[in-house]
TrEMBL record:
Source organism superkingdom: Archaea
Gene3D superfamilies in UniProt: Aldolase class I
Chief site of localization: cytoplasm
Residue positions binding pyruvate: 44, 204
MF terms in GO: 2-dehydro-3-deoxy-phosphogluconate aldolase activity; 4-hydroxy-tetrahydrodipicolinate synthase activity
Protein name: Dihydrodipicolinate synthase family protein
Organism: Thermococcus siculi
Subunit text: Homotetramer.
């Protein structure tokens, strides 16, 4: 798995029920656009606001819909046994990868984090993508990532949602250098090109929900060694990523942008998240106009 992977939003109706037709439509759009992977129950998908049963239902529906891309399922929780249950479920339905962020809320040392991931890896066979998102949960250090990757063959890669070129560089040199098949993805749109330049494998980026053509243009230009074109599109992505700073949450930023671009997914977030108002929407409209025309 390499390239552009999309962490899906979860579409909701006004009564907060899951909007299955909108999910179907969005997955179809992304596959037609040519993305390389689709990731359900992601941070952008508000997984912490979903019940275990809803997460399983969404995972099953996603497996039915995703037919021409790699299929990833988020299985993170602060309960290790719950993660094992969800990861086994992802394995049983035929997902290609499980994506697992560290436990959140409870501060853990590296030995506790190692044991958490080791228990999951030993109880399942599905390839696991670690998810480093230190702004929301316990951070994963380079030595810990390397230890997990070298001791568990089914720990297959990492999503790095960290605003540090040096950290990503060190993961690529220290971990991928030791284990060539270990995949390194950025979780930040603005770091897509430099992650590829450093030797990474792609990105799992939320703005690809509403502008996958830009991410795919970066990827294609880089693969074809059209570096001036890659720079141009990367600058667009860097500017587009400012959308996150305009809103109160990832979900609000992405769903407002999708609404402005004509997607049928409703601008509805599940509590405790709230949608931002007209002032934020206008700021996002202006940004989209400047970048996408």
């Amino acid at each position: 798995m390499r390239g552009v992977i999309v962490p899906l939003v979860t579409p909701f109706n006004e009564d907060y029920s899951i909007d299955v037709p909108a999910l179907d439509e969005h997955v179809g759009f992304l596959q037609k656009a040519g993305v390389h992977g689709i990731f359900i129950n992601a941070t952008t998908g508000e997984f912490t606001s979903l019940s275990i049963e809803e997460r399983k239902i969404l995972a099953e529906k996603g497996r039915e819909l995703v037919t021409s891309a790699f299929y990833l399922v988020g299985t993170a929780s602060s309960n290790t046994f719950e993660v094992i249950e969800l990861t086994k479920h992802a394995q049983d339905i035929g997902a290609d990868y499980a994506v697992i962020a560290p436990p959140y809320y409870c501060p853990l040392n590296e030995e506790a984090l190692f044991r958490h991931y080791s228990m999951i890896a030993e109880k399942t066979d599905i390839p696991i993508i670690l998810y480093n998102i230190p702004s929301c949960t316990n951070p994963l250090s380079v030595p810990l990532i390397k230890r997990l990757a070298t001791e568990h063959s089914n720990i297959a890669g990492i999503k790095e949602t960290i605003d540090s070129v040096n950290h990503v560089r060190d993961v690529i040199i220290e971990v991928k250098g030791e284990r060539e098949d270990f995949r390194v993805f950025t979780g930040l749109d603005q770091h897509f090109l430099n992650t590829l330049i450093l030797g990474g494998d792609g990105g799992i980026m939320a703005c690809a929900n509403f502008a996958p053509e830009v991410h795919l243009a970066v990827w294609k230009a880089f693969q074809e060694k059209r570096y001036e074109d890659a720079f141009e599109y990367a600058r667009k992505l860097a500017k587009l990523s400012k959308v996150y700073s305009l809103a109160s949450s990832f979900g609000s930023a992405i769903k407002l942008a999708m609404s402005l671009r004509g997607f049928s997914i409703k601008p509805v977030l599940r509590p405790p998240y709230v949608m931002d108002g007209e002032e934020t929407k206008e700021e996002i409209r202006k940004l989209l106009g400047e970048v996408l025309g």
